[in-house]
Amino acid sequence: MTDVLSAHFKEQAAEAIGNATIQESLDRLVNFRQGRVDAIAEYGQERWDALSQSAREIKRETLEHLDYYLDELSRNVERAGGHVFFARDAAEANEYVAKVAADNGVKTVTKSKSMVSEEMGIADVLESMGIEPVETDLGEYIIQLAREAPYHIIAPALHKSKEEVSELFERILGTPAESDITALAGVARKVLREKFLEADMGMTGANFGVSETGTIVMVTNEGNGRMCSSLPRVHVATMGMERVIPRLRDVATYLPLLTRSATGQRISSYVSFVTGPRRSDEEDGPQEFHLVILDNGRSRMLADPELREALYCIRCGACLNACPVYGKVGGHAYGWVYPGPIGAVVTPSLVGVPKAKDLPFASTLCGACRDVCPLKIDIPRMLLKLRSDAVEGPAETRVPRRVESLMMRAWRRTVAGPRLFSLAGKVTSAAQWPLSRRGSLRWLPPPLSGWTRTRDFPRAAMRPFRARWRKDEGNRGG
Amino acid sequence: MADREEFLAHIRSALASGPCIGAPPSASPPAATPSPPSRDDLLAQLERSAGLQSWHFVRAANADEATARVVEIAKGHGAGTVVRTAHDVLQRMGIDAALAGAGMESVVLADGPGGLDAEQRQATAAGAAVGVTGVDAVIAETASVALAPRKGMSRQASLLPPVHVAVAMADQVVGTLDDVLALRLVELAEAEEITWYMNLVSGPSRTADIEQTLVVGVHGPGVVYLVVIEE
Ligand code: SF4
What are phi and psi of B10, to 5 degrees? Predict the structure, then answer.
């Protein structure tokens, strides 16, 4: 499994806050935010809300009978000629993929962006076997060359400037310095095209696994997912066990929610439906198809009635874009695969609270994440639960107060910058503040009531955003 | 190594803890589906959305006009070799002869007597300037072309060349993704083989991974044409 560095939240956050290039790239999240708002307006708010509600209902139903749907999914994949492996943890999943690669004498693996494969850390495993893993999503490729973790679940290299990309290509690929973004993408296209044509195994994620037909659905924009699932002899798809949906037609419910929330696109450039390996009469396509279904801590979330809802997540990234904390501390601060509000819930849930005890505090509980979430996942509620776990748990998991004050500083800087301020205002209008809707923070669990008593921040949330900030400016220093 | 039964048993025990805390499902019925639009409405909707999705949209009155336009497009991109699928519509258009007449070679990416082997097909597709395919359906709402590879319908013709030309008949245009999926289910119910692959292609290959600046054609085709034959 990929190493968990979430215990270093403070240092990593402070570093991002002090880095001008990173702050500039985080400012660009406004594109995602605006794209989403426009895409929902075009779709129609009422229609959108209905879609959102159906998506919640389907997820709720599916997770309540997850054993049934996973059984059906796996049997249908097998009927279509594919292989299914159920992995309890990352190590088992890695072992299986390594074995498939070894059995097929694989030398090069082309990978399409997949958060689950990041979670597994499969690239390192393949590399240790002398197999070359090549990330083929442009953003993933950049961070692979830089040997970094993804910065954002939709835009992995969000934090890199074109100068940094050029320098990276120059240093590692030996290509001349280039200031034009199209030309930089062209460099990657050329290098990666060769890899696609020589790869013997392709790895992809799965946005959805349709149990009714045994179909894996992949949502991509660049075409690398199609390459990875079409050109090599072997295709291995990895999916978190919560990604199963019952019916093929459910894709029509989830797809608009995903693409419009993520990038504001009506639909992504490519949506691929993979049911087993190539057909008997097909001209091309992989001879083998493997689906790895991963638990890796998800069953713990399933078992916890308070956390189960986090398994509804379709990884659209909208909560990252809306989050004032993510928008300031960036992706690496969160220290593992999943950053932002959903990462603050998923990381401690999957790897255990002690390893990520700062993350539930990496939030102002402003509720912007829940408001933009297409599945209406109540992230603030879950963060409160995890906070109480962190505080009430064994002594070594308790959170030093410094983290909280660091979060507050990050937040203050966010609202202090006039540009960011107005952006934040766009996504979190006063009416959207759940805290103000609820009137007070009395619902905080007892261990945190001290926190609420000593902070004017949440109470202040009952006043309009701007007015509140102006007032708090004067009160600073406490 | 976890086997299926063990894995599923573990999930059952996790579920035993009780239902999820969260808003209960609403009792509201699903949104009503609007009545099917007319063919003209669908085409008008498709034309609009095709523009938004960055397709070059071409309406052709008949097969001959479509052929002329495809030849023009291929020529415009300086194609020496055009790769294509074996879709009926392309045969009917007499595309090979028309391309040959304009000095271009047309290669069908299919197995068969005198055909290319798999390696040659891949090399040819990767080297071609233009790929031409028919389609299985077109979604008006999102300007998505559905391509389901099978015998004669290579995955590569629409993927490896930098330019893709998709040729559709007007009666292949449906309203929504749900329509395409419903059709697929009907076909699957009758199919002998349940293995299938399908791509929805909704414009050029895109990325915005460097400084959120849009670049087309990063891996798949950067220039795409959608030709609809109206007859
Ligand atoms: S929690 Fe919601 S908004 Fe965040 S990534 Fe998941 S689905 Fe998207």
Answer: -65, -40
